Inverse folding.
């Protein structure tokens, strides 16, 4: 995936330009959870429709290193 739709986003806190990149998971799907800690990798809603068995899961993202904030895009 290329940084197409979030490359021009601005930081919601300081208004600075966000650095494009990806959020990468480890071995399993990335999931949106309502709790900070979970007992299983199956809790929450998957952020990717189909995992790639050869690579770590990723979602397109952008971050503001100054404010420590980020935005991400997902397809599920």
């Amino acid at each position: 995936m290329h940084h197409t739709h979030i490359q021009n986003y601005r930081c919601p806190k300081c208004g600075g330009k966000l650095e494009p990149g990806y959020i990468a998971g480890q071995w399993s799907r990335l999931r949106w959870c309502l709790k900070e800690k979970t007992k299983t990798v199956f809790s929450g809603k998957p952020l990717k429709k189909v995992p790639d068995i050869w690579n770590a899961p990723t979602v397109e993202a952008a971050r503001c290193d100054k404010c420590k904030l980020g935005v991400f895009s997902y397809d599920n």
About this structure: The CA atoms of residues 29 and 52 lie 9 Å apart.
